[in-house]
Amino acid sequence: MATQYGIKFAIHLITNHFGNLVAKVCENLLRHGPLTLDQLIHYTELSKEQVKNSLLVLVQHNCAQAFVPEPEDDGSRLRIRTEYMALFDNIIHRLRFPKFLEIVSRKLDEECVELLDGLLRDGRLTLKQMVDRASQGKENAVATNAVREILCKLLAARFVERCPAPEPVVSTSFKETTTRKRGAKSAKIFEAPETLEQRVIFAAVPGDGIRFSLTPDTGSNVDGETNSDDAQMSVEENVEFGAEEEKILWRANFEEFIRHLRRKVLVENVRAQHDDGTATVLNAVLEATRTVERKVKMDNSVPLSLDTIVTEVMKTDTGRTMTIDRIRASLGQLGCSQRMIVDDSYSIDLKKIIERARNEEVESIVLKRYGRDAYRMFRLLSRDGDFHDTDQIAASTLVEKKEAPKLLHKLWNDNYLYMEKIPVTGARMQNTSITMWKVNKPLLWEYVLDEMYHAALNLNLRMAFEQEKDEELLNVPKDKLKEPGPLQKKYKRLLNVWLLLGSSLMKLDDALMLFHDF
Amino acid sequence: MSVLAGKRKRQELASSLSATLSNEERVVYNIIRGRKEMGIWQGDIKRETNIPDSLMKKSIKMLLAKTLIKEVVNIQNKSKKVLMAAEFEPSKEITGGEWYTEGKLDTQLIEALSDVCMKLILRQKVSTREGILDWIRKVGTEIFPGGVSAGQVEQILKVLVLENKVQEVNSTGFGDFASVPAGEVCYRLAKKTAVGVKVGAMASFPCGVCPRINACTPDGVISPTNCQYFEKWLDF
Ligand code: SF4
């Protein structure tokens, strides 16, 4: 679920990108959950036309998804009405477009970057639209085949995907558990979606067979899935090839980008905690199992045998010189100890690495905001997650006994600690209680995440404010700004301000992903 | 042995002296002594006897002068001095334990000890608790005239781990660990990023560590557009 400030920040982004009307519709979807067109008109007090157009914009930019609730068996709901749902994650992803482009620039080439840039700007495009876009401002139109080839590259890397079904039918009753027929191996990894949002997204996504394939549906449902959209696709099966290709809409596959970023964070954290060799091993394992991963938030890496891991590590530039013993030692550092290994297959606890990184982030806030004594006490509580009483905390962390309760209360007051008073009934001590403290991580992380959205919103607002303040500068001819003088000074300051605010926001966004997407 | 001998001597002294005490003095002394290492607050003595206030104060003064009792600072309440028979050492509850001197946390001692531990670990790369303790006992007598207990070293190491300055690891027996048998607990300096302790994303700009963030709203009294923290931060 999106937090309070998460929603505020999302609305701020939508307002900036698409204006107030769209933002109003989006806000209602975020606050109320899925709504029908009529309900939206009622809540927003906008005209039908305005709401419809806003929805179109949101869907075009993958910030909303329509779906049809499955009629219930008793026949009580005969009228099928489409509902709309805001896709919070996709809205926040808009902040990360530069990072997505950077990944493609590193992994593929500039042509791919350009095509992806078009997709990010316009949300969804057909091949023809891509060709038109590429041809803009050029003397001769770009050949369709050339664009198709670039698209192929992006599809092969899974950076681009087919758009989801426009209106999948989704069961809104949560009783049944989703089971999909797949290989026994993936069944183990796969977990049933939990929230309605996940359910809708899940139902709308085409099966892997066609999701990343350029050619129109071959009709052979590759893995025998019965996704709602497959029916719709097969109706079009007989249509002529060219005409069909025309209709297919493409978009950036955010999931793959987030997976990429998560992998990078995992590897870099391991590098900081251990060493380059261990980072190389983890990277090789993740790289080898890339396409088998079924979701972004994998708790453990897909199990691999030592032989496979060694082969994969040797394939990489940095791993070529590593011996088997060295690789095994690295796996040990990653928590794969000999006795935990079943059937000689190694699986790395990725969740633990993410948790460590989250702890570090929170601890660094505590250190800066509350000082060293509080930092020690917080770390003591955060490490074992158990209850400790005030005196015990003061004694173990060597904090002055009088100071400890004050600091603990401060942390508690700001939601960083959880407190409970336990009444003590003894002969001599009547009506007294012992105060017990602990760190409740799930609660704390949600709270910190909300603070991060708040901070991100503030950074954005400050950026807008700084720009407004020095608006005249933007109208001054460039040459004038090059001459020394007050104008140049002001301009230089603005550039510095932008740089600092911008880089802070990007760094903060990494932390947002760490707490929300990873 | 010497402690015991001293105790006996003092006891003899007390019994011989008690003959010279006045009645009130003896009553007060017995109450205080009965509380052993916990001691007692003056106000509580009053509740246990019916000696008039002035007479009791005088008795206490006399007992102090004869060094039969002593005043001890109470960590729980520094203004409430505790009286204790001279032969007892104040309990942990009263002194706050070995890190407290005169009822105050001895930060100087803590710092000095942390410093010595860090320096040794830096030099040895990997150290064990016993190794550190031995070294301090050998070279540290000047810095720590009162001596250092094994428990104290252990706790300092725990605190250094909590401060993220030192890591507790199990020896692998190889490389830096060669001097320590494999599997044994040892300590090494924590890995740092180039600029010291890793500064998180939030800790790098004002809002992330702002004490007023809960009161700050886009168009409130405190807002990102009028905020002083931002002014200072963006002042190039
Ligand atoms: S804008 Fe200023 S007052 Fe508001 S949270 Fe940020 S630093 Fe604090």
Automatic annotation (TrEMBL), chain A:
<comment type="similarity">
    <text>Belongs to the eukaryotic RPC3/POLR3C RNA polymerase subunit family.</text>
</comment>
<dbReference type="InterPro" id="IPR055207">
    <property type="entry name" value="POLR3C_WHD"/>
</dbReference>
<comment type="subunit">
    <text>Component of the RNA polymerase III (Pol III) complex consisting of 17 subunits.</text>
</comment>
<feature type="domain" description="RNA polymerase III Rpc82 C -terminal">
    <location>
        <begin position="149"/>
        <end position="356"/>
    </location>
</feature>
<comment type="function">
    <text>DNA-dependent RNA polymerase catalyzes the transcription of DNA into RNA using the four ribonucleoside triphosphates as substrates. Specific core component of RNA polymerase III which synthesizes small RNAs, such as 5S rRNA and tRNAs.</text>
</comment>
<dbReference type="InterPro" id="IPR039748">
    <property type="entry name" value="RPC3"/>
</dbReference>
<dbReference type="GO" id="GO:0005666">
    <property type="term" value="C:RNA polymerase III complex"/>
</dbReference>
<dbReference type="InterPro" id="IPR013197">
    <property type="entry name" value="RNA_pol_III_RPC82-rel_HTH"/>
</dbReference>
<keyword id="KW-0539">Nucleus</keyword>
<dbReference type="InterPro" id="IPR036388">
    <property type="entry name" value="WH-like_DNA-bd_sf"/>
</dbReference>
<dbReference type="InterPro" id="IPR008806">
    <property type="entry name" value="RNA_pol_III_Rpc82_C"/>
</dbReference>
<dbReference type="Pfam" id="PF22536">
    <property type="entry name" value="WHD_POLR3C"/>
</dbReference>
<dbReference type="Pfam" id="PF05645">
    <property type="entry name" value="RNA_pol_Rpc82"/>
</dbReference>
<protein>
    <recommendedName>
        <fullName>DNA-directed RNA polymerase III subunit RPC3</fullName>
    </recommendedName>
</protein>
<dbReference type="GO" id="GO:0003697">
    <property type="term" value="F:single-stranded DNA binding"/>
</dbReference>
<keyword id="KW-0804">Transcription</keyword>
<dbReference type="Pfam" id="PF08221">
    <property type="entry name" value="HTH_9"/>
</dbReference>
<feature type="domain" description="RNA polymerase III subunit RPC82-related helix-turn-helix">
    <location>
        <begin position="10"/>
        <end position="67"/>
    </location>
</feature>
<keyword id="KW-0240">DNA-directed RNA polymerase</keyword>
<feature type="domain" description="DNA-directed RNA polymerase III subunit RPC3 winged-helix">
    <location>
        <begin position="362"/>
        <end position="439"/>
    </location>
</feature>
TrEMBL record, chain B:
<dbReference type="Pfam" id="PF05158">
    <property type="entry name" value="RNA_pol_Rpc34"/>
</dbReference>
<dbReference type="InterPro" id="IPR036388">
    <property type="entry name" value="WH-like_DNA-bd_sf"/>
</dbReference>
<keyword id="KW-0804">Transcription</keyword>
<protein>
    <recommendedName>
        <fullName>DNA-directed RNA polymerase III subunit RPC6</fullName>
    </recommendedName>
</protein>
<dbReference type="InterPro" id="IPR036390">
    <property type="entry name" value="WH_DNA-bd_sf"/>
</dbReference>
<dbReference type="GO" id="GO:0005654">
    <property type="term" value="C:nucleoplasm"/>
</dbReference>
<dbReference type="GO" id="GO:0005737">
    <property type="term" value="C:cytoplasm"/>
</dbReference>
<dbReference type="InterPro" id="IPR016049">
    <property type="entry name" value="RNA_pol_Rpc34-like"/>
</dbReference>
<dbReference type="InterPro" id="IPR007832">
    <property type="entry name" value="RNA_pol_Rpc34"/>
</dbReference>
<keyword id="KW-0240">DNA-directed RNA polymerase</keyword>
<comment type="similarity">
    <text>Belongs to the eukaryotic RPC34/RPC39 RNA polymerase subunit family.</text>
</comment>
<dbReference type="GO" id="GO:0005666">
    <property type="term" value="C:RNA polymerase III complex"/>
</dbReference>
<keyword id="KW-0539">Nucleus</keyword>
